[in-house]
Amino acid sequence: MKAKYIVFTILLLFHMQLIMAQRSISGSVRDSEGDGLIGATIHVEGTQIGTTAGIDGSFSLEVPSEESVLVITYIGFDTKRVQVGDQTNFDIILQENIELLNEVVVVGYGEVKKSDLTGSVGSVDPEQIQKLATVDIGRAIQGKVAGVQVTTNSGAPGSGTSIRVRGIGSFSNSNPLYVVDGFLTGDISNISPNDIENIEILKDASATAIYGSRGANGVVIVTTKQGLPTGVQVEFNSYYGTQTAWRTIDLLDAQGYAKTYLDLKGGQLSDIESEDLRSWIQQTLSGNNDGTDWQDEVLQNAPIQSYDVSVRGGFKKLRYSIGGTYFKQDGIVVNSYGKRSQANIQLEFNATKKLKLSGGIKYSLNENTVYNQGTYSSVLGTAIRKDPVNPIRDPITGNWDRTNLTDIENPARLAYISQFRVQESERIQPTFGLSYEISRSLTFKSNVTWDNRDIVGNFLTPVYTTVESKNLDENGLPIINPQETNTTEELQVQTNNLNVLQNSNTLSYDKTINAHSINAVLGFEIYQSDASNVTEQIFADSTGVSDPYRERAFNLMSYFARAVYSYDSKYLVTATIRRDGSSKFPEENRWGTFPSFSVGWNVDRESFFPETKVITGMKIRTGWGEVGNQEPIQPYAFYSVLSPGWQYAFDNNTPYQGYAPTFIPSENITWEVSRMTNFGLDFYFLDNKLSLTTEYYIKDTKDLLVDSRFVPAPVFAGAQAPTSNAGSMTNKGLEITLDFRQEIESFTFNVGGNISFIDNEVTAIGAADNIQGAAYEPKTQIPATRTVVGGEFGAFYGLKSQGIFQSQEEIDAHGAQPRAMPGDVKWLDHNGDGEITVQDAVLLGSPIPDFTYGFYLNAGFKNFDFSASFMGSQGNEIANIMTYYYEGSDVIENNLLKSRVENAWTGPGSSNTVPRLTESITQNDWFSDRFIEDGSFLRLRNIQLGYTLPDQITNKVKLTSVRFYLSADNLLTFTDYSGFDPEVGLAFNGDPFGNGVDLGNYPQARTIIFGTNIKF
């Protein structure tokens, strides 16, 4: 018995000694810039003792003894080991590892180690996105990924961008698919840049085939920020700034216009037919009329502001993320504006060790004026064209003045009316998901998302009166004639609704056995879309009329699988297959199967690879895949659809309203299909500080839809011809990406860039000789673009000038322009028939650039940081249709460029490029190379200087970090283009055949902002 007490006492003393040996330690884990690494793992080597860093990267832990070694790990950073010793407080700094930083890449329906990646995937640093003063993610990624061309179609508030991944993918729709937290969508306007965790862009078919018919034009995967395991982090971002027009057009002022007009009349005021115009010109020349600078009247300095707050945290089994954004932008065109409010909440609950539930909701409300851009009658279009001698308002009545020279609208009145053209978009998107871990290697996931969008446009035409003064009375005063009067308010209401329901189910397998690693996923998905719209006309007298209610719906069902195999991290194989069934197609063509495969070789893992810091990594990749495209296809295309508005007469010839088929059904319509082959090389140099990626691809697309507009139907058909799969196209390209990072004590440095070359060729268009785009020049109606077999998509065609006729003898010798006069443009008689017609149009250029590029610089020294990003385009042309007006020959019609007047032909030898000024109708303004300009440009997209307050200051007020910054967008633009902005996207009607056509588009603004970032 006594022996038992002795043993018990010894064990108790030993146990007490162990307890007394344990020590309490605390500290923080931070990166090289001093930011806390929330979720970093700290564990005692050789034990089960460990914890994760909470808010600010702080942690506390009980360790066995002074000899204990702490092992600190965090994804994307080098692992660090620290012996406890006699310390009780630790300040641990982890260093970024370039290779590890991108160790996991988000791909379709899962993640893949970057070392195992065999497809073409581009990544965007979210910190670079958040530096720009924009809520449009497309603008934020401009120039940042090779092979991804982002074009800002307009600088108007609320306008979007067009994104093309590896060129034009279709004759009608080349937009990529967006995937936000697993939800497939065509619009990401409800996502705040501050909520983004990362962005991956899938470019080749081996990567996009997992999305089948939705991935033909590339896939942009957006992952938003989620909750934290412990603690709470509050972040507040705000900025306020001003926007200005970075360029105006150098037109004639009132004096210049009056002198030019009078010169055309031989200096005789009496030869001016309109007494009123004679009076205005006389007053202008005598200094009694300053005229109107219409650009100055409609352009303004405009404020821009944004406020964003997020709260992320977690406790026990629950993680949460809550955020909200308010953004307001007044446009640089008077009375244009845009507002956006966003809110979101994301929850994640660990119900059991194996079952995880998630849910959330995103809400956004957008409001913006609808600017009538890209037409001759827009605010800017008329500001360029309007003669400068007329006032804004009639000096006698005070009503809006309307010129008595032409029918050009008063730009100030158009700007006034634009504030009553408002569109409001409301979007709500709830989600629910679950994840169940069947085993350590097998996981089942299911997600359901509902997306509801309501877009309402209210277009009010208010009461107004314009006046026109044509003649003078006996006292010399203008006789006022009402020219246009609107005495009744009219409201047009356009209502659009879109409902989308998606359910995705996946079974994922991830297993490593010795040198063999396999990652696989099986999935089933359904996607339902239902869209409707109606337009109503409402008048002040309570009467109204409605257009028919229209509804379009389609369903998509999909099965898919992917397997990623790796042997010893050397040899990599990825295989994917997806089978889609779409209700857009007739039953016999409803299903499509889209396979892909790719292989990779990590050469640096081989024993023969030299161990040197010069070349530290090398991978060879290649892949092939096939993807479909159903986006250009409208629901019910294979049905014969009846439309209202047709009249029929019976018996006594009284007309009755009825219905009739408007197009012949496309009974054989099927998927557009793209086949892409990709070759890639990845290199790492200088201990992974320098990375280089080069890729070459060939993309062949067949069965492209050729619109019924370009396939004439027989006259007896009584309807449009069916849309057919008659087109094909090839894109070939080379992409190069370079990135270098260096850290020397308190100085960090990162520089890099990308360049993308592309060659586009149309290989088939069906039975038509060519596909003609819209005509924008009003005299001859020569189409601005043509698409022909063997040429580029949407290339510019027009007359080719050969100089200026200097004499009548030269005109006679030319022979094809008998009505020309010296000083007129000499045109190339391309077909040699002895006359100049539309048939003489030749290839003038292409809106597709030879190459696009972007480069950046990021640097930091102690608490200061600096960044600059550039983007550009080279070798593309722009059809500047506005030159028809401000470089025209007929000065009566429009105002003119100063250089047009100063350099105009005035006699033999005076000019061989700029024709004479005349009142006569000539061929000088026919659509030609005079409209085509070099659209190449280099733009300083953003430059920013920031300062983060020292920790000793922020700690006193219990803040994690406080950063202030000064930023500028579009500060510098280098270009030879003469229009408002060289960044020209689609024409005003969104016609893909009108790419690169400038009709006086709303330009981008130069923006200067001051911002703050505060973390609690």
From TrEMBL:
Cellular compartments annotated: Cell outer membrane
One Gene Ontology cellular component annotation held by this UniProt entry: cell outer membrane
NCBIfam families documented for this protein: OMP_RagA_SusC (TIGR04056), SusC_RagA_signa (TIGR04057)
Protein name per Swiss-Prot or TrEMBL: TonB-dependent receptor plug domain-containing protein
Membrane topology annotation: Multi-pass membrane protein
Keywords recorded for this protein, A-Z: Cell outer membrane, Membrane, Transmembrane, Transmembrane beta strand, Transport
Chain ranges of the TonB-dependent receptor plug domain: 114-219
Entry's family note: Belongs to the TonB-dependent receptor family.
Keyword presence, Signal: no
InterPro entries, sorted: Beta-barrel_TonB_sf (IPR036942), CarboxyPept-like_regulatory (IPR008969), Plug_dom (IPR012910), Plug_dom_sf (IPR037066), TonB-dep_OMP_SusC/RagA (IPR023996), TonB-dep_OMP_SusC/RagA_CS (IPR023997), TonB-dep_rcpt-like (IPR039426)
